[in-house]
Amino acid sequence: MKKILIVINPSSGNQEAKNYAEQLESHLLTSGKEILLYETTEQTDALDIQQMILEIGADTLIAFGGDGTINMCANAIMEADQAVSLGVVPVGTMNNFARMIGMSTDPKKAVQQLEQAATKKVDIGLAGNQYFISSFSVGPIPETVQHVDVETKERFGPLAYLIEGAKMLNDEHTYSFVLKADEKVVEKEYGLLLVTMSDTVLGIESFLPQAAADDGKLEFFGLKKTSLGEKAGLMLKVLKRETDQLDYVDVTKCNELSIRFKESEGVYATIDGDKGPGFPVTLKVLPQALTILVPGEE
């Protein structure tokens, strides 16, 4: 790390992200690093971050925020097309990506971990022309997640998503999909479709225990039409790391996945907790294409 861009979402972490960023900046300055702090606004997008990377010739980007902020920074790095390592200090709500890579969800501890960080290469997903670091999903629960406002997130934390998601547990609506996983084409009906490179989903670690961040595979999870009792059973299986042992769940690995609706639904996907692309769309995995900072040996 020589030239470091620190990107801060000032609305994250009860607005404490900037304080944690300044603590890390103070430490890094003592070791002669060149550092630029950049605060995002509601209008900031990946192109703005990409331009900052190129302007200062950054070799490291450290994001202070939630999965949405980290997603934006990852997209910026991939589009910048230069060697930039991504570090994260999780001050969001679910912090899936941080959990996935072994970072503490305590921002103070995460800052300390970055002070002695090592590097690692992980996979990144591509949905159409949009990269994703954690998950791509379709269904009533992901749709409600898109609409959880900042104030509710700050007040209730992860519970905000669970409150909104619980409202949809009785929703029996399913979508008719035409899926092409690598060379296999199938027609399926799912109430929830999820694609990830991680075992952590909605803040739940080991939701898909067979998934790995660096195995070069997309992990597919499809939930068929289920009763409220079956959904409750699913949560028990999640806790036991047995999500692949249910007859109303489909789980598989693939390199590429094309998704379209059998009939037009006017639905958008959710990517890393925010609104994603419409359909049809093709998902790909780029094996070990993103270099990240992870906790080093203590």
Task: Explain what you see.
- The protein is 29% helix and 33% strand.
- Helix 7 (150-156) crosses helix 8.
- The chain has a six-stranded antiparallel sheet with strand order 6-5-16-13-8-9. Strands 12-11-10-7-14-15 form a six-stranded antiparallel sheet.
- It has 298 residues and is α+β, with helices and mostly antiparallel strands.
- The protein has helices at 17-29, 46-56, 67-80, 96-100, 107-115, 140-146, 150-156, 158-166, 228-239; strands at 3-8, 34-39, 60-65, 85-90, 117-127, 130-132, 135-138, 175-181, 184-190, 192-196, 218-223, 249-254, 256-261, 270-271, 274-275, 281-295.
- The mean pLDDT is 86.
- The chain contains nine helices and 16 strands.
- It starts with a strand and ends with a strand.
- The protein is globular and about 55 Å long.
- Strand 5 and strand 6 form a beta hairpin.
- One of its GO terms (cellular component) is plasma membrane.
